[in-house]
Fold this sequence. Notes:
The chain is mainly α.
Amino acid sequence: MSMTPYDPRKWTSHLLDIEGSMVREILGRVAASVVWSAIVTAAYMTGPDYIRQFSISSTAHALTGTVLGLLLVFRTNSSYDRFWEGRKQWGGIVNESRNLSRQVSVWLATDPALVREVISWVIAFPFATMQRIRGKEGLGLVVKDLDSTDVKAVESSRHLPLAIARIISSRLLAARDRSLIDGLQLASLDKNVQLLIDYCGACERIRTTPLPFAYAVHLRRVLIVYCFTLPLALVNEFGWATIPTSLVISYALFGIEEIGVEIEDPFGYTTNDLPVEKICSGIEEVLSELKDEATIA
Length: 297
């Protein structure tokens, strides 16, 4: 599943969207908040007089809401920073894959077989990175022009992207030893390989470093306390309108928190995650053209 495309200028087309809107994820929490609001409102409106003493000051509750708003803003900003950082790293993988393949296709043009092999490994690198950050095994695609022994060796390694980078570096070093490229060209090519590993490592950092546990727990505790004390602050002034008001407010707050959870790890399979498969396929499509231009002598 890839990221959902949409036109940000069209409002009405999104009002009834369910997929990717967090409705399913927060439905239980919102429903519980609304049921509790209905119980509190019914007890206040139809129950004995002493129940009314359990209402709380709306001013005090509003001050708590200000603190909660700050916590939610920090949560969503932190999560979006991770999302955008992940997209920048994959943009770097796209660019360096192109740069490396471009240089290889020109500088090693006298050995078309080597060009095809190196570019095939470059194509395999983003797929291997995708598999790595998703905790999956294998290259994730079938690449032609690769020796089956090398493929098995790579797939048996603990870190597939690193294994692919080592093979690319070894092929480039062999090309230097054969005088197909000089030392400066080798250094330039190796810089591209190094950057690919750096981008892979940055994606791993994002994937393996969630928001601090203490912050997530504190935010959720404050959010639950706020939403479930909300009817006590509204019922004295809003009466039966407390129920729909609680629905709207709890939907908004639980939705914002869940959006932060959704985009915190941007490399998954949901409609709000980065379209990693599409990015990998785009790299394969572009580089395959360069590979096909290298005719085997």
